[in-house]
Amino acid sequence: MSPTASQTLLKRFAHRLNRALDALGAPALPLDRARFLGNAIEHDAGNVSAMLTGFLMPDWDTFLKICAVTNQQPGYFLNDSITQYPPETRLVKPLGTGENIVIRVPTPYSKAPFTEPDDEWSYVVAKHRMGFGVEPGDYVINCTPAEGSVSAIPNRLYLMWAASKFEILKCVDVHPGRSTFTSMSSSNGGCMSKILPLDAEGQRLKPDYMKEAGIEHLGVIAMTTRSAKVMLNL
Question: What's the whole-model pTM score?
Fold first, then answer.
């Protein structure tokens, strides 16, 4: 008898969860492994054991905790046949305080050259006009490569955290050894230019310079979202 769709999902989830825990160096013994994950997600070890052996799927909140602990996107555990959780689903973490959110990345973005499955996705809620059409209350969603170095791509927007403030930059040009970015002043709307050096390959922003310049975060903006409340106030 062929397994049902739910049985297939349970088996797939358990297999990938165990594989993710292996990568974290979790204990190999089943009981110790269940306790390890249970402590990490603040969940009953008995239920966790059932998840690890393919007898139980977590609820949505527990699922998000598992994604956060294993540093995996929801799509890692689920496949194309599960329409409510497609592989393009991304777990997006707040830069600062806030809750994790989940989005489904449109196909053009999920296959874009600046995004990879292992990229870290995060967001910030704009507190003031940030230029480039971003209004207070907008969710600015960006991604950073897993290896930590960001490519300079002309005509792409970037979210930067430096000098205790968030700022949106636009890459306007890339030359040998350097890249040119512009930002918009929140006070008068004027443009300001920034020159950021590139690494030896001339494609990625130089990590040493970013550290010396006090740039603590730099990610490629994938999209912004706007609530109905913000739209009504425009």
Answer: 0.63
